[in-house]
C-alpha cells in the first residue's frame, strides 16, 4: 500500500478507510492472546498510524511515529518476547491467564462507561467539538482506540498485554489531540514528547517484565487492581 | 488564587540574571547527576561541595525574588514558546527541593558503602540529578507542555530509582507504578487536548486571562485531576504507594515521598484553581476523600506490622490533610482572610511533611539497616541501642502529628483558624481526630522501642552522617514552625 | 533585657542537648551538667525576680505568623511558677541522681527530664496562649519517656493511658485557643484582659471556649472525671512522680487555668459568664472525691496520687472564689502544695529504695529505722492536712477567708470536710511510722532492705528530702517576710485586682 493510492481516492473516503483499518488493527493487537501475533500486529498498527500522520500533513509526526512506534517500541516488545537478542529464552507463546467473568466484566464496564460518559459530555456540550467529530473520522478512530485501549488495560492481567494496551491508548490520545486541536506546532511538540515518553515507558516496562520473568516466572502483577487504571 | 500562583502578566521585566539562574537551576542537577554516575562519590565531602553549588543557585533565585518580585521569563525552542515564572511559591518549593535532594544525596554514599558493592548504585546519581531537574522545572513552569514534559520525565526517573533495589517484589510494585503513572499521564494529556481544542493555548497565563470555565473546563479538570491524583497517590488511588516504598532504597523513598508525589499535587491544585474557579462540589468531594484518606491511612498505619508500611501509609493520611484544604482554597465563597490562612497552612503542611517524611524514611531505614528487622516488633529495645535514630523518628513524627513547635503545628493552627472562620466544623473535627490517629500509630513504634526485656540483637554500625543528616531534616521540620514568619512572607499574593 | 527569659529557657534545653550527646557511661560529666544547669537556672530566675521587684518586665517576642507571636514574658505570676519549678528541679535532680544510680537508660532519663523542666519553665514564662500551648504539648511529649522509663508492661500501659488523656486534652485545648484567636485576635496574657468587650455579642461562644480551655487544661490538672491517668502514672520512678505531681504536669494544668481565668478572660468576664460556679463545683467534687479515694488506698504512692488530685483542686477552688483572699490562697497553695508534695514523694521513694516498702502496712516502725525521712514525711503530711505552722496552713487559711468573704459557705464546708478527710488518710500512716512495732523493733523483716549509705539512706536521697521539708516549714513560719511565697502571691493578687 502506498500513499499514492490513498491520495487518489477521495480524501474523506480514504480517511474513513484509514480510520477503519486503525481500529481493526488496534483490536487485533489488543485482543489476540497469541503474544507474538499481537506484537506483530502492533508493528502494523504503528505503520498505519504513520500513514495517518502523513495524511494529516504532519511529516514530522509521521517520522517520529515511525521511529518511536514502528521501530523502537516494537523492538522493546520483541525484546520482552525473547525474540530480539537471538537465543534468549522465549516467553510463553500465549497469555493463559483467565479472569473470572464477573471481575473482568466489572472492570471493563467501569472503564468503558467512564469513557462513554466523557465522550457524550464532549459531544453534547460543545458544538465545536461535535463538528470536529463529524468531519473527521480519524478523531473517531482515536476515541475508539482510547476506549478499547482503556478497556483492554483494565481487563488484561498479562503485563505485556497491558503494555500493548497502554501504547494503543496513547496513540488514540495523540490522534484525538491532533483531531481536536488541529496540527499546530505546539500540538506536534506535545505529541512528540508524548511519543518519546511512551517509548521510554515501554522500554522501562519491557526491561522490567523481562527481569521479573527471569526472577520468578511471573507474568502478571500479584494482585493488579484495574480500578486504579482510571 | 491566580495571583497567588503568579499566573499573570507581571508588569515589570525580569532581571537579566533570572533566566540564566533558572536555566542553571535546571541543568546543574543534571550535570551533577551525570558526573556522579561517571565518578560515583564514596565520601560525603564531594557531595557536599556539589550540593552547596546547587543550593547557591537556589539562594540566588531567592534573592532575585526578594529584589524584583515575581518574574516571568520566556524562552523559545524553535517555534515553541516556553514560559517559566519565578514567584514566592516556586522559589520556596525550589529551595525545599534542593535542600531535601542535597540531604538525600549526602545520605547516599554512607548507605551505598554499607551495602554490598552494587553496580546499580551508579545509576542512582544520574536519576537523582534528572529528578531534581524535573522537579525544579515543575515548580517554575507555567505552560502545559513544559509541565507535561517535566511530569513524565519525573515519573520515569522515579520509577527507575524505585527499581534500583532489584528485589523481585520491588520490580512487581515498580511495574504497577509505571503502568499506572503512564496511564495517568495519558489522562492528563486528554485534558490538555480538550483545553487546546477549546482555547487553543498551552500557556496557563493565557488561560488565566480568558477566565476559562464551562463544561469543557470541568471535563478537562476531571481528566487531569484523575491522572495527577493517580500519580500523587491521593486517596482512592493510593494502593500502589506502600508496596513501592517497602522495597525501595531509603534515599529513594525519602525523595519520592517528600517531593515526587507533592509535584503532582502541586500541578493538580494549580490547574484546578484555573479550571474550577467557582466550583463548590469538586473541592468538597476532595475534602471528603481527604477525610477518608486520613482515616484509612491512619488505620492502615496503625495496623501495619512493617515499619516502612507504617511510614508509607502515613503519607496517604498526610496527603488527606492536603486534600481537606481544597474547599478552603478553591470554593468561591471563602473570605480572603480565610483563603490566605488556608494557603499558608497548605504550604507549611506540605513543606513540613516533605522535610519530616524524608527524615522519617531515613530514620526508618537506619533502624531497619542496623537491626536487620523490618517489623515493629523487631525494634523492641532499640531505644537503648539506637537512641539517635529513634529520636529522629520521634522529632519527625512530632511534625506529622502536628504538635508544637513544628511546621505541622503552625500549619494546623492556620488551617484550624481558617476552618473556624468559615465555620466548617466537620473539618475541624477531622483535623483534630487526625492528630490523635497519627499519635496512635506513631506511639505504637515507641512502645515497642521502650520494651526493655527484649533479647539483644547484634546491631550493625551506621555511618554517623546517616543519622546526622536525618536529624538535620527532622530539626528543620521542627524549627520551621517557630521560624515560619519569613517563609510565609514569600507566600503573600504579590510575590 | 529581652533575652533574659529566653536564656533562662535555653539553659535547660542546652543541658538536654548536651546530655543526649554525652555517652551513657559518662556519669560524672552528666551529673555536672545537670547540677550546673539547675543552679544556673535558679540563679537566672532569682535575677528575674530581682528585676521584677525593681519594676522591669522582660519580654522576648518572635513573630510566627500574622498576629501570632512566640512571646516569653517574665511577669510576676509566671516567675512565681518559674521559681517553684527551678527550685524543685534542683532538688529533684539531686534526688534522681541518687535514685537512678546503676539503673539503665540514665542518659535518656536525664535528657527528657531536662526537656520536661524546660517545658515547665516555658509554660511559666509563656506570654500568650499560643506560646503556652507550645510548651504544654512539649511537656506531654517529654514526660512520656519518663513515665514509661522502666519499660515493663505496666509502665507501657500507663504510658498509653497517659498519652490518650493528655493528647486528647491537647487537641481540645488547641481548638479552644484557635477559636479564641479567630474571635478576638490577640491571645496575650495581660493583667487587664480586653475580652470583656466581646461579652454582649459572643457570650455563648466565649462560654464554650472557656469550657474547652478548662477541659483541655483540666486533664493535666487531674480534675475529676479527667484524672484517670494520674494514679496509673505512678509506675514511673519516684523522682518522676515527684516532679509530675509537684511542679510539672499537674501544676502546669492548674497554672494554665489560673492564666486563663486571670489573664485571658479576666475575673469580671468569668463571673459574668457564670463560670466561677462551674469551677467551684468541679473543684469541690474533685477535692472530696480525691480524698475519699485516698483513704481506700493500700499503697503509699497511689495514696499520694489521690491526695494530689484533691490538693491541686484547692488551687482551682481558690480561683473560683473571686476575691483577693481566694486568689492569694490559690496562688500560695500552688507553691506550698508543690513543696510539700515533693517532700512526700521523696520520702515514699526513700522508703521504697532503702527498705523496699510500697504498702502502707509495711511502714510499721519505719520511724525508728529512718527517723529523718519520717520526720520529713510527717512535716509534709501535717502540712497537707493544714496544721500550723507548716506552709499548708497558710494556704488553707486564705482559702477559708476567701470563701467567707465570697459568702460561699458550702466551700467552707468543703474545706473543713476535706481537711478532716486528709487527716483521716494521713494519720494512720503517721501512726504506723512512729507508734507501731515493726522490724526496727525486732518484729518481722523489711520487704527488701538495702543499706545505701552511712546515714539512714544515701545522702543523694536524704538531703533533698530534708531541704524541701525544711522549706515547707520555713515558708509557713516566715510567711510574712519579703520574697516568701505568701508575699509574692499577695503581690501577684494585687496586680490582678488593682492593676
Residue-averaged pLDDT of chain B, rounded?
Answer: 87
Largest sheet of chain B: 2 strands, antiparallel
Query: Tally the helices of chain C: what do you get?
Result: 20
Biggest interface found: A-B, 52 and 51 residues
**Main beta-sheet annotation of chain C:** 2 strands, antiparallel
- Count of individual beta strands of chain C: 2
The side-by-side strand order for the widest beta sheet of chain C comes to 1-2
Terminal-residue CA separation of chain B: 13 Å
Shape of chain C: globular
> Could you say which overall geometry of chain B the principal axes of the C-alpha atoms support?
globular
Q: Tell me roughly what share of residues is in helical segments of chain C.
A: over 70%
Using the CA coordinates, give the radius of gyration of chain C: 21 Å
Helical residue percent band of chain B = over 70%
- Secondary-structure element string of chain C: HHEEHHHHHHHHHHHHHHHHHH
Which secondary-structure class do the elements of chain C indicate?
Answer: mainly alpha
Q: What is the ordering of alpha helices and beta strands of chain B?
A: HHHEEHHHHHHHHHHHHHHHHHH
Oligomer classification: heterotrimer
Task: Summarize the topology.
The complex is a heterotrimer of chains A (230), B (495) and C (499).
Chain A: H1 3-8, H2 11-31, H3 35-55, H4 59-81, H5 101-125, H6 127-135, H7 137-155, H8 159-181, H9 185-216
Chain B: H1 2-5, H2 16-38, H3 44-68, E1 71-77, E2 80-86, H4 88-114, H5 121-140, H6 144-163, H7 168-199, H8 204-210, H9 215-232, H10 241-247, H11 250-275, H12 281-303, H13 307-324, H14 326-330, H15 336-371, H16 382-385, H17 387-401, H18 407-421, H19 425-450, H20 464-482, H21 485-489
Chain C: H1 3-21, H2 27-53, E1 59-65, E2 68-73, H3 76-99, H4 106-125, H5 129-147, H6 153-184, H7 199-220, H8 229-232, H9 238-246, H10 249-265, H11 267-272, H12 275-295, H13 300-321, H14 324-355, H15 366-369, H16 371-385, H17 391-405, H18 409-435, H19 459-477, H20 485-497
Helix pairs in contact in C: 1-2, 1-4, 2-3, 3-4, 3-9, 3-14, 3-19, 4-5, 5-6, 5-10, 6-7, 7-10, 9-14, 10-13, 12-13, 12-18, 13-14, 13-17, 13-18, 14-16, 14-17, 14-19, 14-20, 16-18, 16-19, 17-18, 17-19
Amino acid at each position: 500500500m502506498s500513499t499514492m493510492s490513498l491520495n487518489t481516492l477521495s480524501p474523506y473516503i480514504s480517511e474513513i478507510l484509514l480510520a477503519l483499518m486503525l481500529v481493526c488493527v488496534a483490536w487485533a493487537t489488543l485482543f489476540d492472546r497469541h503474544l507474538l501475533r499481537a506484537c506483530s500486529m502492533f508493528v502494523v498498527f504503528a505503520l498505519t498510524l504513520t500513514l495517518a500522520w502523513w495524511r494529516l500533513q504532519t511529516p514530522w509526526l509521521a517520522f517520529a511515529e515511525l521511529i518511536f512506534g514502528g521501530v523502537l517500541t516494537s523492538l522493546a516488545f520483541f525484546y520482552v518476547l525473547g525474540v530480539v537478542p537471538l537465543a534468549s529464552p522465549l516467553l510463553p507463546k500465549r497469555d493463559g491467564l483467565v479472569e473470572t467473568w464477573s471481575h473482568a466484566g466489572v472492570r471493563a464496564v467501569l472503564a468503558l462507561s467512564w469513557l462513554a460518559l466523557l465522550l457524550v459530555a464532549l459531544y453534547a456540550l460543545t458544538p465545536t467539538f461535535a463538528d470536529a467529530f463529524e468531519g473527521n473520522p480519524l478523531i473517531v478512530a482515536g476515541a475508539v482506540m482510547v476506549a478499547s485501549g482503556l478497556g483492554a488495560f483494565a481487563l488484561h492481567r498479562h503485563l505485556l498485554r497491558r503494555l500493548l494496551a497502554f501504547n494503543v491508548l496513547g496513540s488514540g490520545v495523540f490522534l484525538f489531540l491532533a483531531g481536536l486541536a488541529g496540527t499546530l506546532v505546539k500540538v506536534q511538540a506535545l505529541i512528540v514528547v508524548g511519543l518519546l515518553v511512551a517509548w521510554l515507558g515501554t522500554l522501562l516496562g519491557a526491561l522490567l517484565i523481562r527481569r521479573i520473568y527471569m526472577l520468578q516466572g511471573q507474568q502478571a502483577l500479584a494482585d493488579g487492581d484495574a480500578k486504579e487504571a482510571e | 488564587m491566580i495571583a497567588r500562583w503568579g499566573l499573570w502578566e507581571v508588569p515589570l521585566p525580569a532581571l537579566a540574571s533570572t533566566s540564566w539562574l533558572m536555566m542553571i537551576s535546571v541543568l546543574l542537577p543534571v550535570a551533577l547527576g551525570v558526573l556522579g554516575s561517571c565518578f560515583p562519590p564514596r565520601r560525603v565531602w564531594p557531595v557536599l561541595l556539589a550540593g552547596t553549588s546547587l543550593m547557591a543557585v537556589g539562594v540566588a533565585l531567592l534573592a532575585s525574588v526578594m529584589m524584583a518580585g515575581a518574574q516571568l521569563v520566556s524562552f523559545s525552542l524553535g517555534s515553541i514558546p516556553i514560559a517559566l515564572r519565578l514567584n514566592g511559591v516556586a522559589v520556596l518549593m525550589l529551595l525545599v527541593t534542593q535542600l531535601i535532594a542535597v540531604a538525600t544525596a549526602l545520605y547516599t554514599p554512607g548507605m551505598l558503602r554499607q551495602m554490598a558493592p552494587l553496580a546499580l548504585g551508579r545509576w542512582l546519581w544520574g536519576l537523582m540529578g534528572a529528578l531534581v531537574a524535573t522537579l525544579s522545572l515543575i515548580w517554575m513552569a507555567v505552560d502545559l507542555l513544559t509541565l507535561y514534559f517535566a511530569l513524565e520525565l519525573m515519573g520515569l526517573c522515579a520509577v527507575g530509582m524505585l527499581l534500583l533495589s532489584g528485589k523481585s517484589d520491588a520490580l512487581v510494585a515498580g511495574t504497577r507504578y509505571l503502568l499506572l503513572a503512564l496511564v495517568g499521564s495519558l489522562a492528563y494529556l486528554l485534558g490538555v487536548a480538550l483545553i487546546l481544542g477549546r482555547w487553543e493555548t498551552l500557556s496557563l497565563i493565557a488561560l488565566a486571562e480568558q477566565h476559562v470555565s464551562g463544561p469543557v473546563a470541568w471535563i478537562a479538570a476531571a481528566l487531569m485531576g484523575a491522572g495527577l491524583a493517580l500519580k500523587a497517590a491521593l486517596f482512592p488511588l493510593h494502593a500502589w504507594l506502600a508496596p513501592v516504598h517497602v522495597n525501595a532504597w531509603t534515599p529513594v523513598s525519602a525523595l519520592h515521598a517528600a517531593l515526587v508525589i507533592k509535584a503532582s499535587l502541586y500541578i493538580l491544585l494549580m490547574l484546578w484553581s484555573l479550571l474550577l474557579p467557582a466550583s463548590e462540589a469538586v473541592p468538597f468531594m476532595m475534602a471528603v476523600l481527604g477525610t477518608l484518606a486520613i482515616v484509612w491511612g491512619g488505620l492502615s498505619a496503625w495496623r501495619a506490622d512493617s515499619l516502612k508500611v507504617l511510614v508509607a501509609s502515613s503519607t496517604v493520611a498526610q496527603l488527606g490533610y492536603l486534600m481537606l484544604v481544597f474547599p478552603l482554597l478553591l470554593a468561591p465563597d471563602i473570605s480572603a482572610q480565610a483563603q490566605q490562612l488556608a494557603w499558608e497552612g497548605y504550604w507549611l503542611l506540605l513543606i513540613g511533611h516533605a522535610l519530616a517524611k524524608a527524615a522519617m524514611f531515613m530514620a526508618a531505614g537506619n533502624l531497619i539497616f542496623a537491626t536487620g528487622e523490618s517489623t515493629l516488633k523487631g525494634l523492641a529495645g532499640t531505644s537503648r541501642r539506637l537512641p539517635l535514630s529513634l529520636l529522629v523518628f520521634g522529632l519527625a513524627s512530632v511534625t506529622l502529628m502536628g504538635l508544637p513547635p513544628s511546621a505541622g503545628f503552625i500549619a494546623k493552627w492556620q488551617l484550624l483558624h481558617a476552618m473556624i472562620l468559615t465555620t466548617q466544623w466537620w473539618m475541624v473535627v477531622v483535623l483534630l481526630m487526625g492528630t490523635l490517629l497519627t499519635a496512635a500509630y506513631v506511639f505504637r513504634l515507641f512502645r515497642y522501642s521502650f520494651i526493655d526485656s527484649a533479647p539483644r540483637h547484634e546491631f550493625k554500625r551506621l555511618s554517623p552522617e546517616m543519622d546526622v543528616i536525618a536529624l538535620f531534616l527532622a530539626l528543620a521540620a521542627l524549627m520551621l514552625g517557630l521560624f515560619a514568619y519569613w517563609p510565609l512572607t514569600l507566600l503573600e499574593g504579590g510575590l | 533585657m529581652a533575652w533574659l527569659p529566653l536564656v533562662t529557657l535555653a539553659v535547660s534545653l542546652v543541658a538536654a542537648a548536651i546530655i543526649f550527646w554525652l555517652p551513657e557511661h559518662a556519669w560524672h560529666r552528666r551529673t555536672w551538667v545537670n547540677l550546673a544547669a539547675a543552679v544556673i537556672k535558679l540563679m537566672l530566675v532569682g535575677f528575674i525576680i530581682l528585676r521584677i521587684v525593681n519594676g522591669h518586665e522582660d519580654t522576648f517576642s518572635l513573630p510566627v505568623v500574622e498576629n501570632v507571636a512566640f512571646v516569653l514574658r517574665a511577669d510576676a505570676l509566671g516567675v512565681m511558677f518559674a521559681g517553684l519549678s527551678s527550685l524543685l528541679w534542683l532538688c529533684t535532680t539531686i534526688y534522681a541522681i541518687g535514685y537512678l544510680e546503676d539503673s539503665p537508660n540514665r542518659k535518656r532519663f536525664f535528657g527528657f527530664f531536662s526537656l520536661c523542666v524546660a517545658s515547665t519553665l516555658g509554660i511559666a514564662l509563656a506570654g500568650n496562649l499560643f506560646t503556652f500551648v507550645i510548651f504544654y504539648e512539649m511537656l506531654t511529649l517529654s514526660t512520656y519517656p519518663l513515665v514509661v522509663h522502666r519499660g515493663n508492661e505496666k509502665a507501657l500501659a500507663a504510658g498509653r493511658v497517659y498519652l490518650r488523656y493528655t493528647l486528647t486534652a491537647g487537641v481540645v485545648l488547641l481548638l479552644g485557643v484557635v477559636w479564641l484567636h479567630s474571635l478576638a485576635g490577640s491571645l496575650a496574657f495581660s493583667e487587664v484582659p480586653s475580652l470583656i468587650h466581646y461579652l454582649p455579642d459572643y457570650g455563648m461562644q466565649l462560654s464554650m471556649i472557656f469550657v474547652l480551655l478548662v477541659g483541655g487544661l483540666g486533664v493535666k490538672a487531674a480534675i475529676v472525671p479527667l484524672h484517670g491517668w494520674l494514679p496509673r502514672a505512678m509506675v514511673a520512678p519516684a523522682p518522676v512522680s515527684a516532679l509530675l505531681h509537684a511542679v510539672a504536669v499537674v501544676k502546669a494544668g492548674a497554672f494554665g487555668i489560673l492564666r486563663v481565668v486571670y489573664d485571658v478572660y479576666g475575673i469580671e468576664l468569668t463571673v459574668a459568664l457564670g463560670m466561677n460556679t462551674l469551677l467551684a463545683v468541679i473543684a469541690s467534687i474533685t477535692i472530696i472525691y480525691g480524698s475519699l479515694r485516698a483513704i481506700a488506698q493500700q499503697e503509699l504512692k497511689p495514696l499520694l496520687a489521690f491526695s494530689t488530685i484533691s490538693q491541686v483542686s484547692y488551687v482551682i477552688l481558690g480561683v473560683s472564689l473571686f476575691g483577693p483572699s481566694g486568689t492569694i490562697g490559690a496562688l500560695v497553695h500552688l507553691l506550698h502544695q508543690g513543696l510539700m508534695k515533693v517532700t512526700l514523694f521523696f520520702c515514699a521513694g526513700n522508703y521504697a529504695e532503702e527498705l523496699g516498702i510500697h504498702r502502707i502496712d509495711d511502714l510499721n516502725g519505719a520511724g525508728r529505722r529512718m527517723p529523718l525521712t519520717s520526720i520529713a514525711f510527717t512535716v509534709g503530711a501535717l502540712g497537707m492536712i493544714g496544721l500550723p505552722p507548716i506552709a499548708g496552713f497558710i494556704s488553707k487559711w486564705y482559702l477559708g477567708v476567701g470563701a467567707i468573704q465570697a459568702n460561699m459557705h458550702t466551700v467552707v464546708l468543703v474545706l473543713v470536710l476535706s481537711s478532716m478527710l486528709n487527716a483521716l488518710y494521713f494519720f494512720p500512716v503517721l501512726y504506723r511510722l512512729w507508734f507501731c512495732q515493726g522490724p526496727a523493733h525486732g518484729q518481722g523483716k523489711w520487704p527488701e532492705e538495702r543499706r545505701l549509705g552511712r546515714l539512714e539512706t544515701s545522702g543523694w536521697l536524704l538531703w533533698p528530702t530534708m531541704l524541701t521539708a525544711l522549706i515547707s516549714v520555713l515558708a509557713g513560719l516566715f510567711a510574712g517576710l519579703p520574697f516568701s511565697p505568701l508575699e509574692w502571691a499577695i503581690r501577684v493578687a494585687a496586680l490582678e485586682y488593682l492593676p
